[in-house]
Design a protein that fits this description.
alpha/beta, Rossmann fold, 8-stranded mixed beta sheet, 4-stranded mixed beta sheet, 19 helices, 37% helix, binds S-adenosylmethionine, binds iron/sulfur cluster
């Protein structure tokens, strides 16, 4: 099996090393660009296994028992990553890889209005594309980030630490001092009328929600008395002992300036504890924050350096922590830094969130197929809606996604038809085509994705005899173009030649 390595293995060759005849077209395009994409073929399965072996588990984050996924899987004959053991539909990483390579300019920006599991984000990242995905369910996003953390980027990013800044003196956050002197004022904002400005990164939104936090647009909402809801009457943080404090709160004394230098946040010098009480250096009193950012060993090295030297020090920060620091600060500030080291998953309704999506080189998604698989009880969840409401919301989301697509670029939706209560097809494929065409895009390609047969051979006789419904073992790959198809192709070819 051909292994998928980190970024260096950019050009994949499906044919080499496989026990199938060499095929010159496949060598050039990774698979044959015919209108039948057969996931049952040996090379496809091998490639899929290679992707799974890097740790992609797209089914994680979905509650298979709460919703009607069994019915969906039965109808679609889709088995999970680990064979028949899971009930949950898993997006195909090989299809993802092919669509990115065929229809997105190298290093291009992908947007995905219905992100679901981690597959499309992780595959994008591994192939050097930028990915922005929107998903309504915070538990799914948490699972996606956990996987991305393991798979995507284990390496560290070098940054500078301002030794002078970290030698500034503070009292330290002892409970007695918080109760009697500072009242934990660092939790409150001096500039925001709401009273607080606490950023909750999408990776931890689910956890904070489960503990009772209300989060809107990535910000933890204050109580009526303009305080954090997790502050007790003694001004102590009730999450502190539970180990559940948000990343933004733990890291809060520090920020990265535009030169990638870690400094003490300016507003900390306005706090009571600055230059007060015990007057201990920041690197000591905020050691736990440093440990969160850099890990225990690197923190020990940092402290040793600062204790004996005055010059700045270059240190290694895990890429994910670097990204979270920047993402959190971007939420608060107008001058946003454009750092994308990880797939970006946003929690929310695609209808609202697409407005803030980056301009796209490729739209790639797999929408809910009506109410065939119900993902949550959130009224904004498309899979919860009556078909006519579903189509209206679906069209609006497609409109907003198409607005973000640059000219002369492709869009691809993977869709499957499904039946109404009377057993008749909804013709969801045509509704999807119309939705894109109404936005001025052109239908450019249509391919049939042949799925695994699963248990269909066992069920088909009864099903066919009773209803004459033929066994569905395919989905439709719809590719649209905004602008001119040849120019869109040129964009991909030119960048490939660079
Ligand atoms: C077809 S699923 C994706 C399934 C896919 N096989 C996967 O996991 O990669 C569609 C996703 O859209 C999400 N969704 C439904 N309504 C949404 C909305 N209004 N905005 C954003 N996401 C939504 C669902 O929670 C679900 O995860
Ligand atoms: S950082 Fe300062 S204000 Fe905040 S809890 Fe610690 S001592 Fe109090
Ligand atoms: S979660 Fe805790 S540390 Fe963070 S703002 Fe609230 S009370 Fe303060």
């Amino acid at each position: 099996m051909k292994k998928i390595k980190k970024k260096e293995e950019r050009v994949f060759d499906f044919a080499k090393g496989m026990n199938i005849p060499k095929n010159i077209i496949r060598e050039r395009f990774d698979a044959i660009p015919f209108s039948i994409l057969n996931t049952r073929e040996g090379f496809w399965q091998e490639r899929k296994q290679a992707w799974i072996s890097i740790g992609i588990e797209s089914e994680v984050g979905r509650n298979s028992n709460a919703y009607n996924t069994k019915q969906w899987v039965n109808e679609h004959q889709i088995s999970g990553n680990k064979g028949q053991s899971t009930n949950i539909s898993v997006f195909d990483p090989v299809l993802t890889e092919l669509m990115y390579k065929w229809f997105c300019p190298p290093q291009g920006q992908i947007i995905d209005p219905f992100a679901g599991g981690s597959v499309r984000g992780i595959v994008a990242h591994m192939l050097d594309y930028k990915y922005w995905g929107c998903e309504l369910r915070s538990e799914q996003i948490q699972a996606n980030y956990e996987q991305a953390k393991d798979i995507c980027q284990q390496e560290n990013i070098p940054i500078k630490i301002s030794t002078a800044s970290l030698k500034q003196l503070f009292n330290g956050c002892e409970p007695k001092y918080i109760k009697n002197v500072c009242h934990g004022r660092c939790c409150e904002s001096s500039t925001m009328s709401e009273g607080t400005l606490i950023t909750i990164h999408p990776f931890e939104e689910n956890k904070i929600r489960q503990m009772g936090g209300n989060i809107i647009n990535g910000l933890l909402q204050p109580t009526e008395n303009k305080k954090c809801k997790f502050k007790n009457i003694k001004n102590l943080c009730i999450l502190h002992s539970k180990g559940g404090k948000p990343f933004g709160c733990v890291a809060s004394p520090f920020t990265l300036n535009n030169n990638d230098t870690l400094i003490i946040r300016n507003r900390y010098r306005l706090l009571k504890c600055y230059n007060n009480g015990n007057k201990q250096p920041a690197y000591k009193v905020f050691m736990k924050s440093l440990e969160l950012l850099f890990g225990i060993n690197e923190t020990a090295r940092i402290i040793k350096h600062i204790e004996y030297c005055n010059d700045d020090i270059i240190v290694q920060i895990p890429a994910i922590n670097y990204q979270i620091l920047i993402d959190n600060d971007n939420r608060k500030h107008d001058n946003k830094r454009d750092v994308v080291l990880f797939p970006q998953w946003i929690i929310g309704d695609a209808l609202d969130e697409l407005e803030n999506a980056p301009n796209a080189d490729f739209i790639f998604s797999c929408p809910p197929y009506g109410d065939l698989e119900v993902y949550s009880d959130d009224p904004r969840d498309l899979s919860n809606m009556e078909y006519h409401t579903f189509i209206a919301a679906y069209k609006r989301i497609i409109l907003r996604a198409c607005k973000k697509l640059k000219n002369n670029r492709f869009a691809c939706f993977i869709v499957g038809d499904f039946r109404d209560k009377n057993g008749n097809y909804r013709d969801f494929i045509s509704h999807t085509k119309n939705a894109f065409i109404e936005q001025g895009l052109h239908l450019y390609n249509e391919a049939i994705l042949i799925n695994a047969v699963g248990s269909l051979p066992i069920r088909i006789t009864k099903q066919f005899e009773a209803s004459r419904k033929i066994g569905k073992t395919h989905q439709n790959v719809l590719i649209f173009v905004k602008g001119d198809g040849k120019k869109a192709a040129q964009n991909i070819n030119e960048k490939n030649e660079l």
